[in-house]
């Protein structure tokens, strides 16, 4: 049996001005040692199957993908499929919220192109991030689709493995599962729909009891990705199985649960304006207090160089703050040129996301330099604020990233990170946390964003709408 592996995974904010280019993708092929790290479950379980790695491309969230980059990766994948086929199955490692500039439903295009090459007899299975947007075309074209059941996504590897094991099982047993799909007209930010608190936790706990392995082989709830102004933006429920009535009941049940709780989703920590966050944090008698500068979160598609939060911090002068981070290669170079312990005056950030930001004048002492050919980083100390400047867009998700800059987060009163909900390592570190409703491409105040193309009515844009589930069977 022969199974191809490929995929493209990125999350693209259509409100961002920062396009995702070919250089932003990390491309992994089968001969790459990283391929085994991506799919460690392959080595143990599937002795009789030949896996052919094609191309797996992953990019950090950002603005829309440039069409030429998308076409390059797609054509590369299709060539691999043509050259190495025929295949019994294809496994696709996807995210689901890719947007390619000037076209809709990029993953739908991707799936259809693959189907045309591998033919109708080949089974295609995909794993999705639960923040992916799913279209009818995707449901029609795929045989198997399964999504994460946790946010933060601690189950990413088991989801990939589930997509593969479902594929192998269907191939071995000659099953082509039926698929049930309900679009739920709700668009909510991930920061409110985490599965670590209610109602997300209870809703996602409804999934596993629905699965009996035969009538219902798998089920998925997609929150979707709300910062994509395109017609497929929506939450949805999906079920796969061999019994049409059973999968219908599953998606109806799951979508009704989601709908019922649509107004109950809230941020997991107190959310307030930037000024209020700083004022609260200053008064907190614990350290560190973590603050999410959420509107410019690069891991949700924010550009990352919005300076608003920092500009307010410089005015309000908190007693002890680390600010992570502003990408600005030129500013980093100036600090490197000045050297440690020397004073610099810089104009930082605000150069990419000109819609939401402007460069900010700061002066301070260069406290630390992390030399790195690709992504040099510096700590600039301006009064009691330590500003981390990076060469590239850099999310700070791990304690070690601070330690690498000679900063021990627990020794500082306030640590600001451009993120939404705190990832597990930051959450474990935080003695208290706030979410700042700051400006940026992934502004949490979604009803104020200039949507033109999402399907309406949709909650919370049309709060008084009524709805009952419409099940599509494929
Ligand atoms: Zn996600």
Verbal overview:
The protein is of the alpha/beta class and 474 residues long. It folds into two domains: 2-265, no CATH class; 271-443, no CATH class. It is 27% helix and 23% strand. The radius of gyration is 23 Å and the shape is globular. Bound molecules: zinc ion (ZN).
Q: If helices are DSSP runs of H or I spanning 4 or more residues, what is the number of helices?
A: 13
- Helix content bin: 25-40%
- What fraction of residues sit in β-strands? 15-25%
Secondary structure tally: strands: 19
The domain tally reads: 2
What does the average pLDDT come to? Answer: 96
- First-to-last CA distance: 26 Å
Which molecules other than protein and nucleic acid are bound? zinc ion
Shape: globular
Structural class by secondary-structure content? alpha/beta
User: Cα-atom Rg, whole angstroms?
Assistant: 23 Å
Low-confidence stretches: none
Distinctive features:
474 residues, alpha/beta, 2 domains, six-stranded mixed beta sheet, 19 strands
Q: Can you summarize this structure?
A:
This protein has 474 residues and is an alpha/beta fold.
Element layout with pairings:
Layout: E1 2-9, E2 25-28, H1 34-38, H2 41-45, E3 50-59, H3 67-84, E4 89-93, H4 106-118, E5 123-128, H5 136-141, E6 144-147, H6 156-173, E7 178-184, H7 200-205, E8 218-222, E9 235-241, H8 244-260, E10 271-272, H9 274-283, E11 289-293, H10 308-316, E12 321-327, H11 329-338, E13 343-348, E14 360-370, E15 377-382, E16 385-390, H12 399-403, E17 414-417, H13 424-429, E18 432-436, E19 472-473
Helix pairs in contact: 3-4, 9-10
Bound molecules: zinc ion (ZN).
């Amino acid at each position: 049996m022969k199974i191809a592996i490929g995929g493209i995974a990125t999350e693209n904010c259509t409100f961002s001005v920062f396009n995702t280019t070919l250089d932003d993708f990390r491309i992994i092929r089968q001969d790459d040692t990283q391929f085994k790290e991506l799919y460690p479950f392959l080595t143990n379980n599937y002795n009789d199957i030949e896996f052919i790695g094609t191309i797996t491309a992953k990019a950090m969230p950002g603005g829309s993908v440039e069409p030429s980059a998308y076409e390059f990766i797609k054509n590369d994948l299709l060539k691999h499929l043509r050259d190495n086929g025929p295949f019994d199955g294809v496994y696709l490692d996807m995210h689901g919220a890719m947007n390619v500039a000037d076209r809709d439903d990029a993953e739908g295009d991707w799936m259809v192109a693959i189907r045309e090459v591998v033919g109708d007899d080949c089974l295609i299975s995909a794993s999705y991030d639960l923040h992916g947007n799913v279209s009818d075309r995707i449901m029609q074209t795929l045989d198997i689709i399964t999504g994460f059941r946790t946010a933060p996504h601690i189950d990413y590897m088991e989801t990939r493995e589930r997509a593969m094991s479902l594929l192998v099982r269907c191939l071995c047993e000659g099953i082509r599962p039926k698929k049930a799909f309900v679009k739920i007209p709700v668009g909510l930010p991930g920061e409110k729909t985490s599965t670590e608190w209610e109602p997300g936790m209870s809703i996602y706990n409804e999934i596993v009891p629905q699965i009996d392995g035969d009538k219902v082989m798998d089920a998925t709830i997609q929150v979707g990705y709300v910062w994509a102004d395109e017609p497929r933006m929506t939450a949805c429920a999906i079920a796969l199985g061999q019994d049409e009535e059973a999968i219908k009941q599953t998606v109806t049940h799951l979508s009704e649960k989601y709908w019922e709780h649509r107004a109950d989703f809230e941020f997991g920590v107190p959310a307030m304006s930037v000024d209020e966050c700083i004022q609260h944090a200053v008064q907190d008698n614990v350290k560190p207090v973590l603050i999410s500068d959420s509107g410019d979160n690069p891991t949700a598609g924010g550009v990352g160089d919005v300076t608003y939060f920092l500009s307010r911090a410089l005015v309000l002068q908190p007693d002890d703050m680390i600010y992570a981070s502003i990408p600005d290669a030129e500013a980093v170079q100036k600090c490197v040129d000045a050297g440690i312990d020397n004073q610099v005056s810089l104009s930082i950030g605000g150069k990419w996301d000109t819609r939401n930001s402007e460069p900010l004048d700061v002066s301070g002492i260069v406290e630390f330099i992390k030399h790195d050919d690709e992504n040099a980083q510096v700590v600039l100390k301006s009064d009691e604020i330590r500003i981390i400047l990076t060469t590239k867009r850099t999310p700070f998700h791990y304690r070690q990233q601070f330690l690498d800059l000679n900063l021990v987060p627990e020794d500082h009163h306030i640590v600001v990170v451009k993120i939404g909900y705190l990832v597990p390592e930051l959450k474990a570190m935080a003695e208290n946390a706030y979410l700042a409703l700051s400006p940026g491409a992934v502004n949490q105040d979604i009803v104020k964003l200039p949507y033109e193309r999402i399907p309406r009515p949709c909650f919370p844009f049309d709060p008084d709408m009524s709805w009952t589930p419409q099940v599509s069977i494929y």
